[in-house]
Structures are given as C-alpha cells and as structure tokens.
Automatic annotation (TrEMBL), chain A:
PROSITE patterns: 4FE4S_FER_1, 4FE4S_FER_2
Every 4Fe-4S ferredoxin-type domain range: 57-86, 87-115
Species name: Methanosarcina lacustris Z-7289
Domain of life from the UniProt record: Archaea
GO molecular function: oxidoreductase activity
Pfam families in UniProt: CbiA, Fer4
Name of this chain's protein: 4Fe-4S ferredoxin-type domain-containing protein
InterPro entries the UniProt entry points to: 4Fe4S_Fe-S-bd (IPR017896), 4Fe4S_Fe_S_CS (IPR017900), CobQ/CobB/MinD/ParA_Nub-bd_dom (IPR002586), P-loop_NTPase (IPR027417)
Automatic annotation (TrEMBL), chain B:
Stretches assigned to coiled coil: none
Protein name: Heterodisulfide reductase subunit A-like protein
Record GO terms (molecular function): oxidoreductase activity
Gene3D superfamilies listed in its UniProt record: 3.30.70.20, P-loop containing nucleotide triphosphate hydrolases
Pfam (any one): CbiA
Domain 4Fe-4S ferredoxin-type per the UniProt entry, residue ranges: 59-83, 85-114
C-alpha cells in the first residue's frame, strides 16, 4: 500500500500532512520525494546515513579516436554536445544520459562515464520510523531520476507514505504513477482550488483514487468542499487554520507530538484510505 | 530592458501575491508568469488573451506495429524504460532521445512532435503579460518557461516597457533555472520556518551558482521572530540585502478572494492593517526599482557558502 501526498502546488501543507501522518501510525515507511526541497527531515531530525549515490551517464569523447564528424552533436536532442572545428564540447547538465551519441559514433570515440546528480539518504536503523529521502544536486535538472532511485528502496510489505514534489510535471508523475492512493492537500481559496484541480487532473489521468485533506480549514470559502461533494471525492481530514499549528510548523515540530488528539484522527484517516483503496483498486 | 525574477525555493511563500502587488505599483512593466505548472497570477489579473501558441516539447517515439518484428532491441536500448511489453510507448517515460529510431533494424520507429503546453500573450489592467499552461504531466516545463520569457521580451519590445517582472516557479530545479538565467536581479522570498530557511539557502546557492545579484524579503516574519532573526543573520553572512519584512496578514487572503492585488484592496477597503501592509510593499518596490535601474550593484552577488545543508 503506497500513499502519495500531493497538492499541485507547494506550500499547501504536503510535508506537514506526510510527517504527522507517518508519526501517528505504527510500522510505516516515509519517503520524501520532493528531491529539490526535501523538508521532511527538518521536522523529524533523524541522523541520516547515505545509501546510494544517484548517477547519470554522460559521454566522454576520446580525442585520439574522434574524427570530428559531428554525428554525436547532430544526434543529441538535448543540445548537450556541440561540434566545434577542433573539438566536441559537452554541456553535462543538459545531458539526459540516453547513450545516443555513443550509439551513432562511427569510430567508437564516445566512452560513457557516470557522474553524481544526487544522493539517497536514510534514517539510521534505531530511528523510530523507516525514513528515506533524496537530494538533487544544485544546478542539476534530472529530478525524476533521483525520485525513481529513491522509490526502489520501498519495502513492499509495509505501508509507505510518499511526500510528493509540487507541480504537475514529470517528477509528480513519477510518484503518482507508483501510488495506490493519492491524498491531495489543499486549501479553499482561489489559488488553492485552482491548483487542486490541476493535481486532480494528473491523478485522474493516472487512474489513482483520490481523497482530500483540507488544510487551513476556515480560511477562504466552501468552494473545495462543494466541488468534492458534487464529484464524490471524500474529504479525509480537516486541519484548522490554527496559530498553534502554524507556530509548531515554523519551529519544525510535528504537531502530533504536541497535540496528541491528532494521532487518532490520522489513524482514522489511514483506515478510511485502506478501505477506499481496496474498494477501487483491490490493493490491501 | 531590466528583468526581475521572484523566487522562493519553496511554494506557498507568497510569490504570486507579491508579484501581483508589484504589478499594480510598477509602470511600463511586462509580467511573466513562469510558474507554468500551476499558473496563479491570471486568477488575480484576469488577463484578456491576445494570442495563444502551442509549445512543442520533446518528441515522442512511435512504433509502427506493421513493421515491428518484436526483436526487442528498442526495449533493451531505451534507458528510460519507455518501450512497453506490447511495443507501444509509455508517453510519460519517453524523453524523445531518438536512440530507438536508429537502433531499430526494421526502421519501425519514428519520432512524432508532441505539444507540451500553450504560451499565452495577454493584456491585463496593469499591462501586458506572458503566461502559459502546461499540459497535464508534460515535462518540458523548463522549455515552456523559456518560451514565456521570450514572449515577455517581445511584448516588452512592442509596448516599449522598461521592466519584466517574473513570477518564478517553486523549487530549485530545471524550471527555476530557466526562470532566473539572464535576469538582472532575483528577489528571494522566505518564511520564518525551518523549511523556509532551508529552502532559502538552496535558492541562494542557485543564484550564487549563476552569479545573479540577489536580494531577499521575509514574509510572515512575525509568525516566528526568532527564526526571522536567523534568516536575517544568514542573509548578512551571504552578502544579500534583506529589503523588507512583511507581517502575517489575513488581508492577503481577503484580497485574493476579491481577485484584487493587496495594493488595490488596501486602497478601497480602508482597513488599517491593509494600508500598512501595502506601504511596506510600496517601499520594497521602490528599493527594487533603484537596484534594477542601477547596473553597477556588484556587492549584491551572493557569496557561495561552504555550509551545505543535509
């Protein structure tokens, strides 16, 4: 059972929901897939140890063999290679590692090397929660590759909670395409509703069942609720627009720790999700 | 032509609220909404669309099953796992690299163009605006950001505008890089939270990497004043001027509900809190305008700090 926490947009409370949800349950795993801004551990404070360096292949041109024919640069769809009169120039951050250049080189002058684009880390084994996150190196663009490597560490025998990246582009798809259930976190304001609709479209395209957590409930109006009622989308939980919760967040304290009554609410949400996921996909 | 990008590392800091407010203060300005994944500026500025154009993303492989013999070479060679068991292509995995087209011994694979979104030029009550709509699940958002910026430049030319205001995407990945390269100034918006500070550091690493003059602003500074002081100290250390601290204010949501900028809202609501808030933004914009007009502000380059956050 893999539950993705998504929102279409940043700042709606995905990390808050993911962290508090994971802490409220027993024997679950938490994966922070927002590899551009992994924030979960700021609230968890675990000692982390590296588990894997995520690498991407890139070409190295052997100048002794290269005849400067330019086939490699012509072939590259990402403009990562440029053929100059005396040299083939590489722009590593544009390279997707497809291997096309080495495939089309007629003289075998392209050798593929690997370079690090990010790292996967996990909480040490004495931590109370099984936790992994990935960090994309600054200046690198291949977030999806780090996410895919990260998701390979999921233990299929246990429920996994996955904090998704924001947006509706490929990094989110990499996560949602993998999930059995998607929790969309939103607030009922014009921006919140607009971004919620975008995220919902992605989840629908991938045929993942969806439920909603209304964050900062009380702010704005009832547009999200009205929509959910009409569309038959369950509202799993409401987190009020509460100064105390905002304060705890700002200090990096998960609110289930200071407000134990929330533990039960998250447990109830988990039961509901299990039932709904089973109903729509048969996954237990 | 001078360009300002507003970024935050993290979403939900108030970038769009601030960009909208600036739009009602600045004159001769083109707006560029580069948050193409979730474009929210149009919700406030209600643009009249002038022109829409498809943006072509990376191409998509397509296998002609009449020619395919099922040898499986394409599946073996594809590094992105995009060729499925039945020799159809998973469009969400295919990166259009074309390796399959040259590897196929039967010439059964070709590349097809694919539309990844639309770039839109509009006119708003505060001037021209370029924005975009990314199609669901498309990945070429960096490319779409580039097209929005190109369109903004064309609009600036046509309407003789002096500034381009860029509402940036969240994060520090490919779309953000596309949104800030070649700009004259980046304003990083932060929040006094542990994640706010963490994301600010990553955003500054990025502007330092690209050597772009950078200034900062804290939103909701009074939610956690201790953390605000930490952010201030970090900015000092990194050599970044902290130009303003905005208080936590419900009026930002109230203005949004009215589909107005906070400047407009303050002008007619008569709310004292709103007027104060609007004045801070006014001063902030004045500071930015000075820096945008002055090309010799070398001291604003952020320093590359050694401390790398875990």
């Amino acid at each position: 059972m893999k539950i993705a926490i998504a929102s279409g947009k940043g700042g709606t409370g995905k990390t808050t929901v993911a962290v508090n949800f994971a802490l409220a349950l027993e024997d679950v795993q938490l994966f922070d897939c927002d590899v551009e801004e992994p924030n979960c551990n700021l609230f968890l404070g675990f000692e982390l140890e590296p588990v894997e360096e995520v690498t991407c292949l890139f070409p190295e041109i052997n100048p002794d063999k290269c005849t400067l024919c330019g086939n490699c640069a012509d072939f590259c769809r990402y403009n990562a290679l440029a053929a100059l009169p005396k040299k083939i120039l590489l722009f590593p951050s544009l390279c997707h590692g497809c291997g096309g250049c080495s495939f089309v080189c007629p003289v075998g002058a392209v050798e593929e090397k690997s370079r690090s684009i990010g790292i996967i880390e996990k909480a040490s084994s004495d931590a109370p929660l099984k936790f992994f996150h990935g960090i994309l190196n600054i200046g690198e663009a291949m977030a999806t590759m780090v996410i895919k490597s990260l998701l390979r560490h999921i233990d299929e025998s246990k429920p996994a909670i996955i904090d998704s990246p924001p947006g509706t582009a490929c990094p989110v798809l990499a996560v949602l395409g993998f999930a059995d259930y998607c929790v969309l976190v939103t607030e009922s304001t014009p921006f919140g509703f607009h971004d919620f609709l975008l995220a919902l479209k992605v989840a629908k395209a991938l045929k993942v069942p969806v439920g909603v957590v209304l964050n900062r409930d009380g702010l704005g109006d009832s547009r999200v609720e009205d929509f959910c009622r009409d569309e038959g989308i369950p509202i799993l939980l409401r987190i009020p627009n509460d100064r105390m919760i905002a304060r705890l967040y700002s200090e990096g304290i998960p609110f289930v720790k200071e407000m134990p009554e929330w533990k039960e609410k998250f447990e109830d949400m988990f039961e509901t999700i299990k039932a709904l996921a089973f109903k729509s996909t048969g996954v237990q | 032509m001078r360009q300002l990008a507003i970024i935050s590392g993290k979403g939900g800091c108030g970038k769009t609220t601030l960009t909208a407010a600036f739009s009602s203060l600045s004159e001769n300005t083109v707006l560029a909404d580069c948050d193409v994944d979730a474009s929210d500026l149009p919700l406030i500025l209600k643009p009249q669309v002038l022109k829409t154009e498809d943006c072509l993303g990376l191409e998509l492989a397509s296998i002609d099953l009449k020619l395919c013999t099922g040898c499986g070479i394409c599946r073996e060679i594809c590094r992105f796992g995009a060729v499925l068991e039945n020799f159809t292509i998973n469009p969400y995995s295919c990166e259009g690299c074309a390796v399959c087209t040259v590897a196929c011994p039967e010439n059964a694979v070709s590349l097809m163009p694919r539309v990844s979104g639309q770039v839109i030029s509009s006119i708003t009550r505060f001037g021209p605006m370029a924005h975009a709509k990314l199609d669901t699940g498309e990945e070429a958002s960096g490319k779409l950001v580039n097209m929005v910026r190109k369109r903004a430049l064309e609009l600036a030319d046509r309407y003789s505008c002096k500034f381009i205001l860029i509402d940036g995407p969240p994060g520090t990945g490919c779309p953000v890089m596309a949104a800030i390269t070649g700009t004259d100034l980046v304003l990083v918006l932060s929040e006094p939270t542990v994640s706010g500070l963490h994301d600010l550091k990553r955003a500054i690493e990025l502007t330092a990497h690209f050597r772009i003059p950078t200034v900062a602003c804290i939103n909701k500074y009074d939610i956690n004043e201790k953390m605000s002081l930490e952010i201030e100290a970090f900015c000092r250390e990194a050599g970044i001027p902290l130009l303003a601290c905005l208080p936590y204010a419900d009026i930002t949501t109230e203005a949004m509900m009215e589909e107005e900028t906070v400047i407009e809202y303050a002008a007619h609501s008569g709310d004292e809190e709103a007027v104060k808030f609007a004045n801070i933004i006014r001063n902030l914009w004045a500071e930015i305008e000075i820096r945008l007009s002055d090309t010799s502000k070398k001291e604003m380059y952020p320093k590359i700090l050694q401390s790398r956050e875990p």
